[in-house]
UniProtKB/TrEMBL annotation:
<dbReference type="GO" id="GO:0008286">
    <property type="term" value="P:insulin receptor signaling pathway"/>
</dbReference>
<feature type="domain" description="Ras-associating">
    <location>
        <begin position="159"/>
        <end position="243"/>
    </location>
</feature>
<dbReference type="Pfam" id="PF21989">
    <property type="entry name" value="RA_2"/>
</dbReference>
<keyword id="KW-0597">Phosphoprotein</keyword>
<dbReference type="Pfam" id="PF00017">
    <property type="entry name" value="SH2"/>
</dbReference>
<dbReference type="InterPro" id="IPR035037">
    <property type="entry name" value="Grb10_SH2"/>
</dbReference>
<feature type="region of interest" description="Disordered">
    <location>
        <begin position="1"/>
        <end position="41"/>
    </location>
</feature>
<dbReference type="InterPro" id="IPR001849">
    <property type="entry name" value="PH_domain"/>
</dbReference>
<dbReference type="GO" id="GO:0005737">
    <property type="term" value="C:cytoplasm"/>
</dbReference>
<dbReference type="Pfam" id="PF00169">
    <property type="entry name" value="PH"/>
</dbReference>
<feature type="compositionally biased region" description="Low complexity">
    <location>
        <begin position="89"/>
        <end position="105"/>
    </location>
</feature>
<dbReference type="GO" id="GO:0046627">
    <property type="term" value="P:negative regulation of insulin receptor signaling pathway"/>
</dbReference>
<keyword id="KW-0963">Cytoplasm</keyword>
<feature type="domain" description="PH">
    <location>
        <begin position="283"/>
        <end position="392"/>
    </location>
</feature>
<dbReference type="InterPro" id="IPR039665">
    <property type="entry name" value="PH_APBB1IP"/>
</dbReference>
<keyword id="KW-0727">SH2 domain</keyword>
<dbReference type="InterPro" id="IPR000159">
    <property type="entry name" value="RA_dom"/>
</dbReference>
Length: 587
């Protein structure tokens, strides 16, 4: 009995260690002298202890069916914890051998650590609020809570696809996009990759060279879905289009009064034109004469055509719009409207202002294309804009408003600052110790003239002294403009007009190019009221210096950059200010 008592006291001390630390004065604890005595009796030989540990580990990992003393002790953690601690006197246990005493004392520390982990886990679980499981069928014994790779439907997988996009100069870039990426998202991605300025005027163009057709994708259209309807020869172009939503700003310029009528209500005014187009319950109608190409033939006929929400119709009897005289030409639902690139050469069109209604199912066949031709560019723009408004409605207005809403949410410090503005430039006088703003317009004009003469004298004096001036004709002033985006080099008049038309016939759209008739001169190509005009920039001599002028030497500039900066702020002899420049980027 005396030999077995140290074992019980040692086990009790290990099991009651947490309690003894919390309540040192608790009842039932052995005295300090008893602990010292038991400590002396618990001394065991180290070699024997290691051998006993090896034997116990072998018994743990062996799948033997023998009821050893260590196996129930490994399961004793949860079993002993589930039983309530007896508050009465302890029952006397049978005597055990010293070998079994050592084996029983080994897993006690493992049980203590495991018990602390279980208590910590129970504390964390109980501290959280009870949230009902919304998917009990996923946590049943038959199905694991983790979704297997094949449990999701294949349609929800994030499919990716490579799309090749070309720029105006012929370069291309392959971009990996998701299946749900829109044209606006792809344009923003290309703007980021090509380090362009994002002014919300970039667009993705669907180009069909074999058919001679192209159109700008709407911002909400899915790129992968559009590509599935394109032939192998077709491609995407990354281009500017300033006139994409210009009809929301100036609707009067896009819809002439004689071309717009109303089917159900006759009191619609031009000020409510866009509201009537966007309202699905209203019935706006575009009417007028168009050249229509007969299907399967090369001949063209001039017919009276009207565009409604239900489709495009032509009248078989003059200008009559009676239902018995109207014949359906094309449907708006499963079709898109394109502009003809070379209608005269490819389709023998009577004018250069052609358009086409192409069904989505058509890829290479020209027999099912509904080819039309207008008399001028404004008429063609009116028909194409009305087609877009009747087909998409409020989606177009939402596409127009999204960039403006994003710009309003951005901080003014994050928006790009313009280099020049009418409201940001003031005349200053720095002749004194501190600068002052010149309020008097006459004084400001005289100060500008005086500064200009002084600047010109300084540049002349530098040339006389022999040092090369940045404004010397043989150096910077003759080549610095070639680094600007608005300068397009040696292109023809027809090519410059084509670029202007592609990037939108809006007021102030311009480019500069070399003159074909005078090798020392340049040409400014400008769009105003949907018409393209050309202005020649001639060099002139003054005090041994070469200057450039648009108005026969009345206003002179040392280089083309100064000329462009001036006419961006002042109209001068031009019909309007320079606002947008045609640009070509390399992808």
């Amino acid at each position: 009995t005396q030999a077995a008592s140290p074992v019980f006291s040692s086990k009790d001390k290990v099991e009651q260690t947490p309690r003894s630390q919390q309540d040192p004065a608790g009842p039932g604890l052995p005295a300090q002298s008893d602990r010292l005595a038991n400590h002396q009796e618990d001394d065991v030989d180290l070699e024997a202890l290691v051998n006993d540990m090896n034997a116990s580990l072998e018994s743990l990992y062996s799948a033997c069916s023998m009821q050893s003393d260590t196996v129930p002790l490994l399961q004793n953690g949860q079993h002993a914890r589930s039983q309530p601690r007896a508050s009465g006197p302890r029952s006397v246990q049978p005597q055990v051998s010293p070998r079994q005493r050592v084996q029983r004392s080994q897993p006690v520390h493992i049980l203590a650590v495991r018990r602390l982990q279980e208590e910590d886990q129970q504390f964390r679980t109980s501290s959280l609020p009870a949230i009902p499981n919304p998917f009990p069928e996923l946590c049943g014994p038959g199905s694991p809570p983790v979704l297997t790779p094949g449990s999701l439907p294949p349609s929800q997988a994030a499919a990716k696809q490579d799309v090749k996009v070309f720029s105006e100069d012929g370069t291309s870039k392959v971009v990996e996009i998701l299946a749900d990426m829109t044209a606006r998202d792809l344009c923003q991605l290309l703007v980021y990759k090509s380090h362009c300025v994002d002014d919300n005027s970039w667009t993705l163009v669907e180009h069909h060279p074999h058919l001679g057709l192209e159109r700008c994708l709407e911002d909400h259209e899915l790129v992968v879905q559009v590509e599935s309807t394109m032939a192998s020869e077709s491609k995407f172009l990354f281009r500017k289009n300033y006139a994409k939503y210009e009809f929301f700003k100036n609707p009067m310029n896009f819809f002439p009064e004689q071309m717009v009528t109303w089917c159900q209500q006759s009191n619609g005014s031009q000020t409510q034109l866009l509201q009537n187009f966007l309202n699905s319950s209203s019935c706006p109608e575009i009417q007028g004469f168009l050249h229509v190409k007969e299907l399967g033939k090369k001949s063209w006929k001039k017919l009276y055509v009207c565009l409604r929400r239900s489709g495009l119709y032509c009248s078989t009897k003059g200008t009559s719009k009676e239902p018995r005289h109207l014949q359906l030409l094309a449907d708006l639902e499963d079709s898109n409207i394109f502009s003809l690139i070379a209608g005269r050469k490819q389709y023998s069109a009577p004018t250069d202002h052609g358009l086409c209604i192409k069904p989505n199912k058509v890829r290479n066949e020209t027999k099912e294309l509904r080819l039309l031709c207008a008399e001028d560019e404004q008429t063609r723009t009116c028909w194409m804009t009305a087609f877009r408004l009747l087909k998409y409605g409020m989606l177009l207005y939402q596409n127009y408003r999204i960039p403006q809403q994003r710009k309003a949410l951005l901080s003014p410090f994050s928006t790009p600052v313009r280099s020049v503005s009418e409201n940001s430039l003031v005349a200053m006088d720095f002749s004194g110790q501190t600068g002052r703003v010149i309020e008097n317009p006459a004084e400001a004009q005289s100060a500008a003239l005086e500064e200009g003469h002084a600047w010109r004298k300084r540049s002349t004096r530098m040339n006389i002294l022999g040092s090369q001036s940045p404004l010397h004709p043989s150096t910077l002033s003759t080549v610095i403009h070639r680094t600007q985006h608005w300068f397009h080099g040696r292109i023809s008049r027809e090519e410059s007009h084509r670029i202007i038309k592609q990037q939108g016939l809006v007021d102030g759209l311009f480019l500069l190019r070399d003159s074909q008739s005078n090798p020392k001169a340049f040409v400014l190509t400008l769009c105003h009221h949907q018409k393209i005009k050309n202005f020649q920039i001639l060099p002139c001599e003054d005090d041994g210096q070469t200057f450039f002028s648009l108005d026969d030497g009345n206003t002179k500039f040392s280089d083309l950059i100064q000329l462009v900066d001036f006419y961006q702020l002042n109209k001068g002899v031009l019909p309007c200010k320079l606002k947008h420049h045609c640009i070509r980027v390399a992808l």
